[in-house]
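re: that chain from earlier
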Amino acid sequence: MKIANNPSAGIVTILFLLISLYGRAQSCDSLLVEAMREEGITFTHDNSVKLLMSGKEKFADMFDAIRQAKSSVHMEYFNFRNDSIANLLFDILREKRKEGVEVRALFDGFGNDSNNQPLLKEHLTKLREDSIDIYEFDPIRFPWVNHIWPRDHRKIVIIDGEIGYTGGMNVADYYLVGTEQVGEWRDMHSRIEGSAVNELQTIFARMWKRVTNEELTDPKYYQAKPSGDKMVGIANREPKTSNEIMRRFYVKALDSAKDSVKIVNPYFVPTPSVMKALERCSERGVRMDILMSSKYDVPMTPDAVIYNMKKLAKRGAHIWRYRPGFHHSKIMMIDGKYCTVGSTNLDARSLRFDYEINALIIDPETTRELENKFIEDTGKCDYMTREDLKKSQNTWHKFVGWLGHLLTFVM
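^ sequence. v structure.
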């Protein structure tokens, strides 16, 4: 009645309602996409995503896809461990070369040399004799210290320019059988088809040119076809070109979260800006669940992780410790609306120095699938209160955790 008697007031009321509705429409996923587009990430809408929840699933799916390759197989890994799973992969690649399929592979020098079963010179010679083009990024040479950073920590596979794989797994038996040191070695990967695969190929081609000086410009390498309706963006961290991309993604994602955040990340020693975003998120009432491992493969890391978990538990975060061993996955889910699967650890090495890659998947269905797996994994966890975390360390380990906190900038 008031609107009818006062048209101006009615118009103002309608405008206010429209603005209010627009504000509500700006959900966490749209805000995140908008922010990451400003950072240079391209999102495409015609993708399919298959989550591979274990080493067994990843290698079975990927090896089957490679066996069906018709044109090219491109691989970029931190390392290929010289063991049975890598040998099986190389045997499959040898067969594909006999069929005329091009095979190109890259691995990181530090990743190889720090591996307790590295590829040796004789292995590489034999692979090249079998027409497999395999090269090492930044081999470790005297005076060694020059080669500490940056490392190529990415995991990328592209088959026929149409199928892409990325995630947290290298090529090693321990993703299947674990290790004596840490027990079960859990990790996750994703298979992507659609336009996002062209971005994976572009990233691989850039590194391939840097290492070999060969340009991969033929359209046959960029054959991605529409395969679904999922929105995917590829976040590629490269020194000097996109240094801050993953740090900014984590900060923006956490700051835009409204309801829930779930995280699995093995080396949980965030840089200060990411740690503050985690604290802000928990303090404003967002439900935060973080899964940590019970065992680790790097000294000092366990105590530094617990140091950070205690700070977050104090602010209301829910902390879970994975009993079977080492959960090496690098995943995050926000508000049940979008998620990320990739190679980026929440530490300075990944966020500030190394080459990293993450798939940003803006899709509730995929996110729900990942959340369900997270919930299933909590059934294998101990719930850790702040007091539980305190009791898990003696005085020495508390000191080590504090020291690790001070060394966050290099861990």
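Residues 109 and 298 are 19 Å apart (CA to CA).
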